Amino acid sequence: MMKPVYIIGHKNPDLDSVASAIGYQAYKQAGGEGLFQAAVAGELSDEAVYVLDALGFQKPLWLKSVANTVEDLLDDQPLPHVHPETSLVELSRMMREQKIKTVPVLDQAGKFLGLLTIGDVALIFMENLGDAGAVEQSPRILGRVLQQKVGEIMKSRDLVVFETDDPVEEARKQMLKSRFRNYPVLDEKNSYLGMISRYHLLQMKRKRLILVDHNEKQQAVDGVEQAEILEIIDHHRVGDLQTISPIYFHNEPVGSTSTLIAEKFLDSSFTLDKHLAGLLLSGILSDTLIFRSPTTSPKDQKIAAYLEQVSGLNPIDWGKQIFSQAMQLGDRDERELVGSDLKEYSSGDLLFAVAQIEIIDVSGLEVRKAAFLAAMEELCQERGYAFMCLMLTDILEESSELLIAGRERSMLDQALGSGSGRNRIYMPGVMSRKKQILPVIYDALRRKDLLG
Ligand SMILES: [Mn+2]
């Protein structure tokens, strides 16, 4: 049971973060350095679902948390087990030869039925011999005892059993309270996976991660502080994650992480297949808003031309198709839409969020703006954002309208707009959250700090 390295993007996974996770899994796997598994930290965006489906990809594994769980305590090799019809003679031999003190009893399908400890076995002998009084009786009694089957004497009640996704902290408390020597670990289908003991707490192997398309703790999968980060590949500002050892950290101001992943294939001898080329191209088109975003770099253009060749997809046509068909605006309420591409940020104790909706024509959203603002106020209340803003970005017109909410929204209004006190700011030429909005917010926060 080898545990994979998870390659995972940010929460509220967008197309670029999903494409780069899948792409980097293929790249690492081609390198043959071990087992890698693309994962996502939340429900996929409509756009990502649409593109994965169109290009024939499975949805990556959804990891709800990477906090330490009982799974991380298990040895790679599970210890031996017995079946209910195993005799006590066989069981005793096994315990002696393998030097084990607790043996699980499983049915033919590997489901857990109970267990036997060396103490249980000793007790059975002692109880049977107990009142015999006469030593000469003992061989006969022993013979009878040894004929018994494991199924008749195993313990199947009052056991402390763990499931793979139980938090380690919880397991630790239980172990200290109950003080058994060993504890069976089962999956949700009651299949036996191994045995853990207090010794395993010291040997715990944390979950291993490669982060793509983000590097801020606030945006990372829950429990990231307990995991081991092996690499980061990103194109955002450098945030606040800390690592214990030096790691491979590739951060470059290009339009998408998919660009960086595709470049790795280009620089290697690995072949990039047609579908994956299409997926990485989609990641670039999505993040650069079909090359219109000011984040677009010459490298994005160059890599996209290469991916166009391999995939046979025309970037402009395919890009428009992604943006026009992907977002299911009609089916979703305002709260869902605001949350679908929302990123949280922190500065000192202050928490805020910037969400974005990018579409071909935003005029259809006019009637929903009041409802968007109400949903945003609600989110600020619930999650403790000092303020939040929603960018309604019109890809063809190359502009955004910003809706702003929260108790400190006047700060945002002053930083971004005229300070007119309105909660809507029209910004021609603004399309990029990270390049045109975030720096302005951080700058305003910094000045506010300086002035006290
Ligand atoms: Mn990205």
How would you characterize this protein structure?
This protein starts with a strand and ends with a helix. 39% of the residues lie in helices and 19% in strands. Strand 6, helix 7 and strand 7 form a beta-alpha-beta unit. It is elongated. The chain has a six-stranded parallel beta sheet with strand order 3-2-1-9-10-11. The protein has a five-stranded mixed beta sheet with strand order 12-13-14-15-16, sandwiched between helices. It is built from 16 helices and 16 strands. The chain has three domains: 5-68 and 207-326, inorganic pyrophosphatase (n-terminal core) (Alpha-Beta Complex), CATH 3.90.1640; 72-198, CBS-domain; 334-451, Roll (Diaminopimelate Epimerase, Chain A, domain 1), CATH 3.10.310. Helix 10 packs across helix 12 (315-326). The model has no long low-confidence stretch (mean pLDDT 91). It has helices at residues 15-31, 46-54, 88-98, 118-130, 138-146, 150-153, 168-178, 198-202, 257-266, 274-287, 298-311, 315-326, 334-340, 369-383, 409-416, 433-451, and strands spanning 5-8, 36-40, 61-62, 102-106, 112-117, 162-163, 183-186, 192-196, 208-212, 228-234, 248-251, 342-347, 350-359, 387-394, 399-405, 424-428. By secondary structure, the chain is α/β, with parallel strands linked by helices. Bound molecules: manganese (II) ion. Residues 16, 213, 235, 256-257, 287 line the site of manganese (II) ion.
